[in-house]
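Fill in residues.
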């Protein structure tokens, strides 16, 4: 006689329950992941709210941005406003005068303004160079290269400043320039000689009267070949007759970032 199969309904229920448990576990994991993602987004949103709150304050309709539900204030990094204000003040107080080389420019500029000679002298500063441009009649008489008495006073003040900041200076290059009007004298057959002698006279004055290092000085004459204005007019020729003193700063590890 064959045995009848025993019904295993209890085993069927157990298999169904295992499948159901797996599904519930997966759903729980899924919603936990969604919740974790929503928490991260909420933090980002709160950070955005914090940045906008100072500019907007309250949204239209009276909804405040001060709080978002479900967001823990401690989870958002706090900004040290006092430290931020201190950094901003430091940036505001970092004026050009704190750079010793540019302080040299300020000293010369102050002297020029106090003595009311801005029309005869031009100053052009950069991070790497200071250009002092003299109109020729400030330093010399027409067709001559002997320094005028008043010119010596100006050069004395400039030389004093150069000596004070000499460690910041790589070299001082003095350039003599003329217009296209020809010259033919016993001492100056051409404008080459006149422009070169004027530059050398300034260089020698810095060294011989003030002891500025000679290895940081150079004098060059360019004649009429580097004009900054037209030679067709009297005004243009007057601008071209000039002496340029170029002060070039020393490049080292401390100031290279300011040059960039």
């Amino acid at each position: 006689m064959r045995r009848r199969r025993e019904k295993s309904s209890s085993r069927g229920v157990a298999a169904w329950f295992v499948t159901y448990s797996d599904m519930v576990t997966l759903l729980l994991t899924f919603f936990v992941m969604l919740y974790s993602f929503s928490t991260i987004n909420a933090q980002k949103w709160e950070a955005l709210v914090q940045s906008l709150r100072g500019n907007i304050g309250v949204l239209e309709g009276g909804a405040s941005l001060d709080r978002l539900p479900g967001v823990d204030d401690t989870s958002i990094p706090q900004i040290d406003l006092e430290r931020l204000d201190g950094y901003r003040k430091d940036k505001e107080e970092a004026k050009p005068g704190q750079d010793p080389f540019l302080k040299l420019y300020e000293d010369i500029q102050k002297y020029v303004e106090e003595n009311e000679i801005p029309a005869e002298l031009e100053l052009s500063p950069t991070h790497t160079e200071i250009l002092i441009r003299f109109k020729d009649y400030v330093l010399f008489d027409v067709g001559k290269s002997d320094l005028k008495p008043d010119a010596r006073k100006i050069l004395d003040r400039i030389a004093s400043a150069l000596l004070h900041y000499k460690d910041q200076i790589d070299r001082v290059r003095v350039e003599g320039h003329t217009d296209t009007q020809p010259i033919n004298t016993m001492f100056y057959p051409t404008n080459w000689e006149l422009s070169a002698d004027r530059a050398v006279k300034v260089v020698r004055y810095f060294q011989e009267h003030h002891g500025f290092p000679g290895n940081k000085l150079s004098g060059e004459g360019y004649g009429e070949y580097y004009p900054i204005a037209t030679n067709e007019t009297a005004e243009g020729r007057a601008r071209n007759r000039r002496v340029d003193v170029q002060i070039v700063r020393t490049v080292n590890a401390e100031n290279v970032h300011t040059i960039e």
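Residues 9-53 form the longest helix (45 residues).
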